[in-house]
Recover the amino acids of this structure.
C-alpha cells in the first residue's frame, strides 16, 4: 500500500513485525547478530539512535541492493538511568519495583537505510505505573516471563493493563515502533501512499 | 484470577471482550437491547455514565442472582460536541474530517452492578490526530468500515497507527474499556487478586 522499494525489517520482535504489518507495509525479516553495547557518554535519546544506526550498518549490502532496511532499538529510562533487559526473575523483579509508582520514559530509535541515505529519528513516551504489589509483580513474571523486554514488561501484557495508569505519547512506541512517525518519515521519503 | 462473583459483560464489542480477557477475568457475555438516547442537558462525562448506568438497569435480574454485571459506554467529544456512530461512508468521512488535525477526547463510562450496589466511574483520554488527507480517510473507511464505532475510527486500526500523533491517558480506554481503573475498582470491591 506504500509504494516503496522492498522493505526489510531487521528485528526479531514479534511486536514490531505485527505493528509494521498493521501499517499496511509488506516486508521480509532478515536477522543478524549485532553487538548492543554503546559508549558511556551518550545521552538517552542518543543511545536509542546509536543502537538503531549500529544495527543498520550491518545491512549495507541489502540497502545497496535496492532495499529499504528498517532497524530499531527501544530503551526504558528512569530519570537518567537506562534500564535494560533482565537476566531473569530476580533482576526482572528489581526492575519492576524500580518502575512501580513512578513515571518512566520509553524511547525508540529508528533508522531507515536505503542505498544512498540513512535517516534516523526517535520518539519518547511517558509511562506512569501505579504502585505494584509484590504479588502482582511475581504473578506477572511467572506467567509472562518478559525477560526479552527492556524494563521487564510489555505494555500490551497483563501488567500493562492493570498497572499503567496513563501514558503521554505513542502507545506503539512503547511496544517497540513509533508507527505514526515512521509513516510520516516514509511519506517524506516520497514513498507514495496508494490505496 | 480475580476472586469475584461470576462476571457478566453486557457488551457485544469484540474489543471490550478481548480487553477483559487480557485482564485475566473469566466472564460470560449477555446482550440486551437498550435504547441509547440521553437527556440533552447532560455534560459529556455525565452522558457516558448515564448510558453505562442505563444499560446496567436492564440487568437487575442477573445482578440480584449473584452476578457482577459490567456495562460500558464510550463517547467521542470534540470540544462540547458529542460525535456518535456514523450512518455510513458520508457521515464517517465528515466525522474524520472534523477530527483531522485536532485534539479530541474519548470518555468511557463503566458501571459495576452487583445485587446490593452499583458503582460507576469514567476515564478520559486525549487523542491528537495529524491532518488526515482525503485519500487516507477514504482508504480507511473503504477497508475497515468502522461504522459501529463512535467517531468513526478504531485507535487500533490502520488510521490510528498512521494518524494518531499522541495520546494522554489510557489507550484501552479509547478502545472501549479503562482497564486499569476497572482493575482498581474491582480490588476496592474486595475482589481478591489471587495468582
Amino acid at each position: 500500500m506504500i509504494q516503496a522499494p522492498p522493505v526489510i525489517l531487521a528485528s526479531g520482535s514479534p511486536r514490531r513485525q505485527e505493528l509494521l504489518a498493521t501499517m499496511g507495509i509488506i516486508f521480509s525479516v532478515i536477522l543478524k547478530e549485532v553487538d548492543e553495547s554503546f559508549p558511556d557518554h551518550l545521552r538517552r535519546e542518543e543511545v536509542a539512535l546509536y543502537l538503531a544506526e549500529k544495527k543498520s550498518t550491518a545491512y549495507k549490502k541489502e540497502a545497496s541492493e535496492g532495499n529499504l532496511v528498517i532497524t530499531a532499538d527501544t530503551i526504558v529510562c528512569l530519570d537518567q538511568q537506562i534500564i535494560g533487559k533482565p537476566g531473569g526473575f530476580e533482576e526482572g523483579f528489581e526492575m519492576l519495583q524500580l518502575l512501580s509508582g513512578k513515571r518512566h520514559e520509553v524511547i525508540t530509535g529508528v533508522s531507515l537505510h536505503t542505498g544512498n541515505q540513512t535517516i534516523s529519528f526517535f520518539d519518547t513516551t511517558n509511562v506512569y505505573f501505579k504502585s505494584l504489589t509484590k504479588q502482582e509483580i511475581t504473578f506477572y513474571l511467572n506467567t509472562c516471563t518478559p525477560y526479552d523486554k527492556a524494563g521487564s514488561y510489555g505494555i500490551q501484557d497483563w501488567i500493562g493493563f492493570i498497572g499503567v495508569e496513563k501514558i503521554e505519547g505513542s502507545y506503539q512506541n512503547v511496544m517497540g515502533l513509533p508507527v505514526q512517525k515512521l509513516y510520516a518519515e516514509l511519506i517524506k521519503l516520497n514513498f507514495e501512499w496508494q490505496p
About this structure: The longest strand of chain A covers residues 118-129. Residues 30 and 139 of chain A are 34 Å apart (CA to CA). Chain A has eight helices and nine strands. The helical segments of chain A are 14-22, 44-57, 60-64, 89-99, 134-144, 158-163, 171-175, 179-188.
